[in-house]
Specification:
By secondary structure, the protein is α+β, with helices and mostly antiparallel strands. It folds into 3 domains: about 45 residues; about 375 residues, no CATH class; about 90 residues. It is built from 24 helices and 13 strands. Strand 10 and strand 11 form a beta hairpin. It is globular and about 95 Å long. The N terminus and C terminus are likely disordered.
Length: about 650
């Protein structure tokens, strides 16, 4: 027995070490095998959720970037300085950082898409709208290469900041949304971002409307000013007052375009919601958007909204029979909000609505023209200035170290001098006066209540123009038929009359992204004296189509319009001919109607980085939803409210 025990012990001792070694080897192999497996599983899990993380930058672009208000000191280029208000440095609050972060997050989205293409999660789609969109981008790039000011073409003009990078971001956003969005829950998250933005802008706008502007409070100023600029806090002036909503978008006109984009979507969200809690929420949301629309005091926005409401009546015509109260309620809400605000503002809302009466506006423009004597000629030839009006003309000549006045027949005019003030003996010139500067080499010329400063320089006469520069007046090409209607649409007709002729000069290659203010004849002194002010800077044409045509060329404009037309035709066929009351159809129709409203508002408003990204995202999302509907991949959500708020 003892021997047996010894044997067994030795046997155990001899065998067990081998087992232990073998066991250790197995464990090591298992551990080595598990490491890549864990990492692979984590990566696989991360990639499998690409529908979620890939749209996070998109949600930030929609819900956060339009809210950015922060001061940036911008150094102007020489050409930019000559076509601006003066000075080499300017302060921007509403556009620079919006453009900056838009570009950053668009680049992130592009990288995400490239990764997903390599992983074969998404595939490049060949759709008809991609060709004209590519042409638009191509001619935008060519316009940048041959731009009047290439730095402006890349960075963007002061207060606009829609250079090439931003324009490409708009186009890329449309394409990215079209490729990234495949699931219904993605659409709900995106619509949720639109709702979040609308609520924040609505609340900020509400307090601005009642005269409690957030950005005028000490806390608000700290929020929008970096510490280095805190000393100028007390010197800041706000151009908008009570009952004006500029929100975080920088201008009431752009708030009008934003309202035109959002009100149809809010309207449709209410129509889709079934549960009382969602209906109440959407009514509040719609009310805020209506407040923003009315508070913008933007006729362009109102026109866009009216057009969208007409389209709502067409699209949802059957609901007037099946659910009349539900569809009429938003219209009643719109009237109620308008009535309350009109009473509060002593008729301001009604006046704004009446101002969009085209016949009345034309009549007012004609009356203005009949009661005003226009300057028909203002030219300089060396030391001679020719100033003609509809009634009479004056020629001023520098001779013998003095200024000599003549009539158009070359006869010297007798004058009366009182100190430095000069008037004319001839009663015909009773509305002409001259004021002599102290150095006697500069004069203020006053004609029918309008004035400009004339300087004698070594190069001949010059007129003090915008930015404090001395310039020679130009006589630009114009649409003469608009001469009697220059003040129409807040002088937009005057701007259009000088802008539209520029399109022939930039038919193929534009002046450069955001180069419109440089291309525009800013030294059209006679025109500005007739319809605006001599120092007014025309930095935008108040028309997104003219803006595009001059900046990136008419070819690029036609290409971009082709994208809009393709979307319109596609959506019209889906939502007008055959409409179903489920999530995809409802959201798709809301986007369609918002896009239409924005495009009509664009006849009177410009494209701006504060709002334009939302518009292009809506089109991209609209294309996606239309495709889903056409492929019948969407399912009715009878019992699922989802993000129907």
């Amino acid at each position: 027995m003892p021997q047996q025990k010894t044997y067994l012990k030795k046997k155990h001792q001899n065998i067990s070490p081998k087992k232990k070694v073998h066991k250790k080897k197995v464990n090591a192999e298992v551990i080595e095998d598990k490491k890549p497996s864990v990492i692979f599983n984590m990566l696989h899990k991360f990639v499998s959720y690409w529908h979620i993380w890939s749209i996070i930058p998109l949600i930030i672009i929609i819900g956060i970037i339009p809210l950015i208000v922060y001061a940036k000191v911008v150094e102007l280029t020489p050409l930019e300085e000559r076509n601006w208000t003066g000075g080499t440095l300017q302060l921007d609050f509403f556009s620079y950082y919006k453009a900056y972060w838009l570009i950053i997050f668009t680049i992130i989205l592009v990288l995400f898409c490239l990764v997903l293409v390599l992983l074969k999660k998404i595939h490049i789609k060949k759709k008809g709208f991609m060709i004209p969109l590519g042409i638009y981008v191509l001619f935008s790039m060519l316009s940048t290469i041959f731009a009047l000011d290439q730095e402006v073409a890349l960075r963007g003009f002061m207060e606009m900041f829609q250079g090439l990078y931003v324009l490409m971001s708009y186009s890329l956003l449309m394409v990215i949304v079209y490729h990234l969005v495949e699931k219904e829950f993605q659409i709900k998250f995106i619509i949720g971002a639109f709702i979040f933005l609308g609520i924040v802008i609505g609340l900020i706008g509400f307090y601005q409307y009642i005269g409690q502007d957030l950005f005028r409070t000490p806390w608000g100023l700290d929020l929008i000013l970096p510490k280095v600029l805190e000393p100028i806090k007390d010197d800041l002036t706000f151009i908008f007052d009570k009952y004006d909503i500029y929100a975080t978008l920088g201008n009431t006109n752009f708030v009008g375009s934003y309202a035109a984009l959002m009100i149809p979507l809010a309207f449709v969200l209410y129509l889709y919601s079934k549960k009382i809690v969602f209906q109440l929420f959407n009514i509040i949301f719609l009310g805020l958007m209506l407040l923003v629309g009315y508070g913008s005091n933007s006729r362009a926005g109102i026109i866009g909204i009216i057009v969208s409401l007409l389209m709502i009546i067409i699209v949802f015509r059957r609901m007037f029979l099946t659910k009349p109260f539900k569809i009429l309620f938003p219209f009643l809400l719109m009237g109620s909000v308008g009535y309350i605000l009109n009473v509060e503002t002593d008729g301001r809302v009604i006046n704004e609505l009446q101002s969009i009466n085209i016949f009345k506006a034309i009549e007012e423009a004609e009356i203005y023209s009949e009661n005003r004597v226009f300057i028909t000629r203002l030219e300089i030839e060396d030391d001679m200035l020719y100033l003609e009006t509809e009634e009479e003309g004056l020629v001023l000549k520098w001779m013998n170290h003095g200024l000599w006045p003549y009539n158009l027949d070359g006869e010297v005019l007798e004058v009366l001098v009182s100190g430095r003030n000069v008037s004319f003996v001839d009663e015909t010139y009773k509305d002409f006066r001259i004021r002599i500067f102290e150095d006697r080499n500069a004069f203020t010329i006053i004609v029918y209540g309008r004035s400009f400063d004339l300087y004698k320089t070594d190069e001949g006469f010059k007129i003090l123009s915008n930015g404090g520069f001395l310039d020679q007046p130009v006589v630009p090409d114009r649409i003469e038929a608009l001469d009697d209607y220059g003040i129409l649409f807040s002088s937009r007709a005057f701007i259009w009359s000088r802008s539209i002729p520029l399109l022939k000069d930039y038919f193929f290659i534009g002046s450069g992204p955001d180069n419109y203010p440089i291309a525009y004849p800013q030294t059209d002194i006679a025109g500005k004296l007739n319809y605006m002010g001599i120092y007014t800077i025309v930095d935008k044409p108040h028309n997104m189509y003219i803006q595009t045509g001059i900046n990136t060329g008419v070819i690029s404009l036609l290409a971009l319009l082709s994208v809009f037309v393709i979307y319109f035709i596609q959506s019209f066929r889906i939502y007008i001919k055959k409409f179903e009351h489920h999530f995809m159809h409802m959201i798709g129709s809301g986007l369609f109607l918002g896009v239409i409203a924005y495009l009509f508002a664009g006849i009177f408003n410009d494209q701006k980085v504060s709002v334009a990204p939302l518009f292009y995202i809506m089109i991209g999302l609209g294309f996606t939803i239309n495709e889903m509907i056409q492929k019948d991949t969407s399912k009715p959500l009878e019992d699922n409210e989802g993000l129907s708020i």
